[in-house]
Design a protein that fits this description.
With 381 residues, the protein is α/β, with parallel strands linked by helices. It contains 14 helices and 17 strands.
């Protein structure tokens, strides 16, 4: 059926029989979807009348119906393999060579939580939350295919599978079926570095509009201007404590994650803070003045962060003037620095309200310390 096989198709034929999961990473128009479609058709013919349960899923049914299932059906029609009497449009099942192809969105809970299958294809896997993946994979008896484009945050649930099952990485250059016009449209995007790296070259890159590009991993060095910043959460968001050290002469800020924990009560926060900060200054989120007051009454050296119109961007601006060195064991903070981005809202850029629990904590201390003329001399008596 495929006179000029895409590398993805060859990769699938080689690897699916011998490993649990097969991954395809590629930029735009690299042929991942059509390769998986042709592989499933080939497999159904190869295992005729095996009554295999083959599931195809995408993050929503609307997206699946408009893309991968439309493409699948078009290929069946092209090769005269489509038979309307074998297509149960109500239950979204197509019988092919005595096997059953089920297609559904991850927004169909009974399909995700209830059913099992022999073979699973997760289309655009990068769009799935990890909790959905944790339901799908254990209910799959044999093989799994995942295709994804590399527009991923620097840390993603796919990473552990990428390490275990190295993907086939392809670009539009590997797709022999593109027209000259399609290639020109893609190559016209070369001037956009992020787009070109991800969608042109099929490589991972830091998200567009990353707030911080001025950081690296390294050892935490304590200076004479050292303290702590703290952000508060409870059920959904974590409470964090970040140790901060500022070297004004060398223009460096050193950061170390002390804890990142959900559902801490006041007593637990006090004990954690006492363990890590002792009597050193903590600058806490001023949105929780009663909590800060209670922690202070228990003996912590803690003050409220300075907030107000423009304080977030002002704090970020101060941080951008320094090179930031993050302790390599600070996993949650590293994840945040890799993902914290500007977003467009009402014709201006603002920092996203996500991936910021460690960053906000650090910013509270940095902003209060560098903005105030009596920097680093706070003490609550």
């Amino acid at each position: 059926m495929m006179k000029r096989a895409n590398p993805n198709f060859t990769f699938l034929k080689k690897n699916v029989p011998k490993q649990r999961m097969t991954l395809m990473q590629g930029g735009t128009r690299s042929g991942k979807t059509f390769s998986a479609i042709y592989y499933i058709i080939w497999m159904c013919r190869e295992y005729e009348n095996a009554k295999l349960e083959i599931d195809i899923t995408r993050n929503t049914f609307a997206a699946l119906k408009a893309t991968v299932w439309k493409d699948f059906k078009d290929v069946l029609i092209k090769h005269e393999l489509y038979n309307a009497t074998l297509h149960n449009k109500t239950d979204h099942i197509y019988q092919l060579f005595g096997n059953y192809i089920n297609y559904y969105g991850a927004d169909t809970p009974d399909k995700i939580h209830g059913r099992s299958r022999d073979f699973l294809w997760i289309n655009e896997a990068h769009q799935f939350p990890e909790e959905t993946i944790d339901q799908l994979l254990p209910r799959t008896r044999h093989r799994i295919i995942c295709d994804y484009n590399p527009a991923l945050p620097q840390e993603h649930w796919l990473d552990k599978y990428i390490d275990k099952y190295p993907p086939c990485i392809t670009t539009y250059r590997d797709n022999p079926h593109l027209t000259k016009a399609q290639i020109e449209d893609i190559e016209n995007k070369m001037s956009n570095p992020y787009w070109w790296k991800v969608y042109g070259n099929g490589e991972r890159a830091q998200p567009t509009g990353a707030v911080f590009n001025n950081w690296s991993l390294g050892d935490f060095i304590e200076t004479d201007l050292t303290g702590f910043g703290q952000d508060y959460g409870f059920s959904n968001d974590p409470s964090t404590l970040i140790k901060v050290s500022i070297d004004r002469a060398r223009k460096r800020i050193y950061l170390k994650e002390c804890f990142y924990e959900q559902a801490l009560n006041t007593g637990q926060l006090f004990e954690y803070n006492k363990q890590f900060a002792e009597r050193n200054l903590i600058v806490g989120d001023s949105a929780e003045p009663r909590l800060i007051s209670e922690l202070r009454q228990r003996g912590l050296n803690i003050v409220e962060a300075e907030k107000g119109t423009g304080s977030v961007t002002a704090g970020i601006s101060l941080m951008q003037e320094y090179h930031i060195v993050i302790d390599s064991d600070s996993k949650n903070m590293i994840k945040e620095f890799n993902n914290y981005s500007w977003v467009e809202k009402t014709n201006k850029s603002i920092p996203q309200d996500a991936y910021n629990h460690c960053i906000d904590a650090a910013r509270y201390f940095i902003y209060k310390t560098l903005k105030n003329p009596n920097r680093g001399k706070y003490y609550v008596r």
